[in-house]
Specification:
alpha+beta, Pdz3 Domain, four-stranded antiparallel beta sheet
């Protein structure tokens, strides 16, 4: 199946590219002699009125052969005005640029189809309000955003997109709260987000998240009522007395009227399964338990009366060898400070580290009621993206465990508008990323080892195709943008090389001599083969261990 997915992907993109040249040439009356999909011996050959349509055995390219004025070639008098050279310069430019343009427009259609599959979304209900953010003190958990600047919204995705596009711009929100409507204003904070290739983007944030935290608890004080009752960090409370509990806010409300009475607390406790599937996966099962909890009779918040709080700031996973583990942070520890400043959420802990990842940070945490600290220095780690290219970023390895209890999904009321706007944005972002990658490679700021070739495309096409049509369309769009932009490079034999010739022709006011174009094309072909060779070498080197292993199995 991998081969089939590869052929479909490559053939489709080549067909779209050549179709651009073909349609525009026909539109201007240029005689097209051959439309070929693939190279090598022809496995399909159809003769039209004046064009031969072919399919070659090697689906790694294609071409549209137009009538040209060449040495040793006769052009019939009636076709004299149908050659490519006889066309005005602007027409030739459009004919040449039509191929890459199709590859850059085609992804919009592919992404559109992929996004049409997004039929249900989270509602625009506030689940979490982060401290020290614009929404803090303005919005509350449970608020449902009905309108933004007078425009009705029905999904959280719409809210998020508006906020991200509006850094520093006040937003008027109509909010449904406590069976009534209120109007509030929130100004998204401008945040500079790092992107790949050391790029940055300024976006807006107000500090809210969808979905309310589930009733996963943290207990760090051995003397607290919760600890003495047998409750432990990461227990998931499901019932208090006769009252079912799903969200942490429901757990808090369950103790509002309690004045020191002992109450049964039912919980699920995650327990790791050692050696699950031969150690290939990390697996946990839930053990059911019931604790008899007696809260303090004094009025106050849940933590003060029971020692129970959200598991948000508790480290659930600290991988061996990580910077956090070397600082002696352990699973179950509660992080309370970064560089002496209190942190109130795991999100703010990560923000503090990621804001300045290249320097050491003093981390403070609680363990069994004791205050401990250590210095961490997160490392830059390499990783391979979906197209096999090497990337690098700073990584925080420690993870918390805060399950989210989401509300029921709502139907997307405007699927076509949603798909169209997201398709355009996604295509724009991919074009920007690939354009910068090409520039950085030319500048020497990116290693040539990042180039990928047909083996990577073959592998990715098979992997994404096996996941489903949406994933396959996604990678097809990504490769299409690559193909379109690469073809615009000013290398003779590529479309960009022809555009370079046309530019020089416009400057000197006459076509370049045929001999000059032929020599330039030979040089361009050599450059192209060199780049293809490097890309193929990179593909082989990345998979060398796999290739050697497969050869050993054969012999």
């Amino acid at each position: 199946m991998d081969l089939l997915y590869f052929i479909i992907l490559v053939s489709s993109l080549i067909f779209v590219h050549e179709l651009g040249h073909f349609v525009v040439a026909k539109m201007f009356g240029v005689k097209v002699l051959t439309f070929s999909l693939g190279f090598g011996p022809k496995i399909v050959r159809i003769r039209g009125k004046e064009t031969e349509y072919c399919v070659g055995i090697l689906p790694l390219g294609g071409f549209v052969k137009m009538l040209e004025e060449r040495k040793h070639e006769q052009v019939l008098p009636e076709d004299a005005k149908r050659t490519l050279e006889s066309q005005p310069l602007w027409r030739r430019v459009l004919i040449v640029i039509a191929g890459p343009a199709m590859n850059l427009v085609f992804p919009v259609l592919l992404y559109f189809v992929a996004f049409l599959g997004d039929t249900h979304f989270l509602p625009p209900t506030v689940g979490i309000v982060l401290p020290d953010h614009p929404a803090h003190g303005v919005l509350e958990p449970g608020d449902r955003i009905m309108e933004v600047n007078g425009e009705r919204i029905t999904t959280y995705a719409e809210l998020n997109r508006i906020v991200r596009k509006s850094p520093g711009v006040p937003l008027r929100l109509k909010v449904f709260r406590d069976l009534g409507y209120i109007d509030v204003t929130v100004t998204p904070r401008a945040v500079v987000e790092p992107r790949e290739l050391d790029l940055f983007e300024t976006v807006g944030r107000i500090g809210v998240k969808p979905g309310a935290p589930a009733a996963a608890i943290g207990v760090f004080d051995p003397q607290s009522p919760a600890f003495r009752s047998g409750l432990r960090s990461f227990d998931l409370v499901i019932q208090v007395g006769e009252r079912p509990v799903e969200r942490f806010i429901e757990l808090e409300r369950a103790f509002d009227s309690n004045r020191g009475e002992t109450v049964p607390v039912a919980y699920l406790r995650p327990k790791a399964v050692e050696g699950a599937l031969g150690g290939l996966v990390d697996l946990a099962v839930y053990e059911h338990g019931v604790a008899a909890l007696t809260p303090s009779p004094e009025p106050g918040e849940l933590f003060a009366r029971t020692g129970i709080e959200s598991s948000d700031l508790y480290a659930a996973v600290v991988p061996r060898g990580s910077a956090e583990a070397k600082a002696d942070l352990r699973p179950g520890d509660k992080i309370i400070e970064v560089d002496g400043d209190p942190v109130l959420t795991w999100h703010s802990f990560r923000d503090r580290i990621e804001a300045d990842p290249e320097r050491p940070h003093l981390l403070t945490w609680l363990r069994d009621g004791r205050r401990l600290s250590g210095t961490i220095q997160v490392r830059r780690e390499d990783w391979v993206d979906e197209l096999g290219s090497l990337r690098s970023s700073f990584v925080i390895r420690a993870q918390n465990w805060l399950p989210i209890a989401n509300e029921a999904l709502v139907e997307n009321p405007s699927p076509v508008r949603w798909a169209a706007s997201n398709a355009i944005e996604e295509t724009r972002d991919v074009m920007r990323f690939i354009s910068v990658s090409i520039v950085r490679l030319a500048q020497g700021k990116l290693s040539i080892s990042m180039l990928s070739g047909p083996l990577t495309i073959y592998e990715v096409a098979g992997e994404e195709g096996a996941k489903g049509p949406g994933y396959f369309l996604w990678v097809m769009a990504l490769v299409s943008v690559n193909l379109g932009l690469i073809n615009l490079l000013p290398i003779p034999v590529l479309d960009g090389g022809h555009l370079l010739f046309f530019l020089l022709e416009a400057i000197i006011r006459r076509p370049l001599p045929l001999r000059v174009r032929e020599v330039a094309s030979i040089i361009g072909l050599m450059v192209l083969f060199a780049l293809m060779g490097i890309a193929f070498k990179n593909d082989v080197e990345r998979r060398w261990d796999v290739i050697v292993g497969q050869l050993k199995e054969l012999f």
